[in-house]
C-alpha cells in the first residue's frame, strides 16, 4: 500500500469546534456503554408533543424489530419549521439557486411555513390522509421540499422518485407502494436541458394502472411553463390550488414510529426495495449528525449538492438542516453548467461555509483543470464533505488543496439509504484525517468486521462491514415485505446488520470502505443493481441473455460493463449497441446507461448454470491474466472468446 498522508486536526479547526478529541472519545464511550442514557439525552434535541419515556427497544434477531422513543409523539414538519418561527421567522430557510445563474430565491422560515401549510391543505382537501403514500417526482425546486414537508405535516408517507428515472421506473415505484397521489412539475431544467416530467408521469400512470394501480390526482407545479397534456378531473394545478388554500394547517400528532417516508433503492437481487424510515429516531439522528459532522454553527450557510431523489437529499438538504434551523442551499443545476466553475461561483455568490458533494463530481471537476477553481475566492468555506462512494486519495488531496486551499477539513461520510444518516465520518475538530478513509464511527455506532464464516475480526483487519447494534436513524423495514428486510440485512450474519460493503480497519481503528461485496455497483455515487440492468437488457427482443458487472472508471468510480448474448440469427453491430444503450436508458433512466457492451456467444457458467461473475469482472477490468480457476466451468472455451473480444484493452 502507498503511504498514507495524515492530516492532523489544525488548531483553527479545533478552536470553535463543537466536538474536540476528548469530547469525541468520551461521548463515544458513553454512547456504547449506555445507549439508553445517551439517546435519552440526545433524543430531547427535537421537540416532542408527548415526551418519550421509552428510549430503545430493538432486536436484530428473529423477526427483527426496531423501535426508538416509541411512546413519544412529534411531527417532522413542526420540527423543521414551526419551532423556528419565533426566533428565526425571517431568517432564510431555503436558499434556492436555479439552473440558470441569473435565477435564485430566498425562502424564509415564515414563508416556508406558509407554503407548506397551503400545500398540506390542498392535499387534505383532495383526500390525502395520514398513512397514505404520496409520490413526489420533481426537479430541484423549493416545491420539492414543500411537498416532502407537507406530507410530513399531515402524516402522509412520501416516496420521492429521482427526476432522472424513466416512466417505467416511476411506474414500478407508484405501483409498489400503491400511491394514489403524485406531485410533479411540467418540466425540469438541468444544465440548460428540459426534462419532460409531466409527460413521463402520464406514461408511468398508464403503465401502473395496467398493473392494477389507481392514481386519483396529479398535482403539477409550473416550472418552465411548457404546454403539457392535461387530464381533467385528475390533474390539478399547483398554482391554482395553493392560491385558494389556507396558510394554516395544524401538524398531525405522529407517533415516533409512524412512517415518515419510503425511498426505493437498489439491491443485489430483485426489484428496488422500498426502504422505510420512521419519524422520531430519524429526525433525532439526522439533525444530530448534521450538527456534529459538519460542525454546524448557527448562521452558517450550508450546501449539499445532492438531489432530493436520493437519501442524501432527504437527510442533509431537507430534514437534518431544517430541523437545526439552518440555511440550506438547494441547487437545481449541474456542476459543469454553464461551465466547470459553477460550484465555486455559487459558493462565492452565497458565501457558503459548509459544502457537501460527491467524489464523482470532484473527479470530474478536477479533470476540468484548476483554473476554473482558482479564479474564484472560496474564502467563506470552513468545512468540506464527501459522500456516495470511496474517494481516491488523489481526488481527496485535490479537494483539500485546490478547492479548500488547505484551510478546511474534509469529512468523508460513509452511510447508506438504509442507515438514514451518517455512520462513519471524521468530526472537523476531533478527527485526524487520512485521505480515503471515512475514519471513525459516529456516536452510538458499533461497526464490526466479519469474515466469510461470520467470525468477528479484532484489531487491524479486512472483512465485511456489519453494525452490531441499532442506532435511531436506521430503516425499520422494507415497505410491504418485512421478510425481505430480514433476509437482506440480518440473515448473512446472525444478529448483525450487514451493510453489503467490504472494509478494512487499520492500526488506529480507522475504517476504509473498499466498496460493495455484493452485485450492486456504484455509478457516480448512484446505486445500481446489476440484476436491474440485466433485466432491462433481456427485455430487448434481440437479446437472449445478459450479465452485467462494474469496472473501475476514472470519473464515475464504476462503469457499467454488459456482456450480451443475442438470439440465434442476430448479429452484433455498433448500431445494435447504440440501440441497446437507448433501450436501457428508456427502461431505467440515463444513470443506468451501459458504458461498454460486449457481444458474447456464451457466458461462463458453472455446470449448475450459475454465471461466474468473478471471471466477467476480471475480463472487464482487463485483468484476465488473474482469472483463477476456470476448471469448474461447463465450457472453458467461452472464456477465450470473451478475453479475445474484451472492450477495455489497455
Ligand atoms: C448515502 C449514500 C450507499 C453505498 C454504501 C457504499 C457507498 C457511500 C461512502 C461510500 C465509501 C463513502 N458509499 N458513502 N463508500 N465511502 N463515504 O450514498 O447512500 O445511495 O444508499 O449508497 O454507497 O458502498 O453501501 P446509497
UniProtKB/TrEMBL annotation:
Q: Supply the Gene3D superfamilies for this chain.
A: 3.30.300.30, N-terminal domain of ligase-like
Keywords from UniProt, A to Z, are: Acetylation, ATP-binding, Ligase, Magnesium, Metal-binding, Nucleotide-binding
GO MF terms on file? acetate-CoA ligase activity
The UniProt record gives the binding positions of Mg(2+) as 538, 540, 543
Which reactions is this enzyme annotated as catalysing?
acetate + ATP + CoA = acetyl-CoA + AMP + diphosphate
- As recorded in UniProt, its EC number(s) are 6.2.1.1
Q: Which cofactor does it need?
A: Mg(2+)
The family database entries (PROSITE patterns) matched by this protein are listed as: AMP_BINDING
Q: Where is the AMP-binding enzyme C-terminal domain?
A: 532-610
* Keyword Acetylation applies: yes
Report domain Acetyl-coenzyme A synthetase N-terminal positions. Answer: 24-80
- Binding positions for CoA? 190-193, 312, 336, 524, 585
User: What enzyme category does the UniProt record give?
Assistant: ligase
Residues annotated as binding ATP: 388-390, 412-417, 501, 516, 527
Entry's PANTHER family?
A: ACETYL-COENZYME A SYNTHETASE, ACETYL-COENZYME A SYNTHETASE 1
Described purpose of this protein according to its UniProt entry: Catalyzes the conversion of acetate into acetyl-CoA (AcCoA), an essential intermediate at the junction of anabolic and catabolic pathways. AcsA undergoes a two-step reaction. In the first half reaction, AcsA combines acetate with ATP to form acetyl-adenylate (AcAMP) intermediate. In the second half reaction, it can then transfer the acetyl group from AcAMP to the sulfhydryl group of CoA, forming the product AcCoA.
Q: What HAMAP family is this protein classified in?
A: Ac_CoA_synth
> What is the protein named?
Acetyl-coenzyme A synthetase
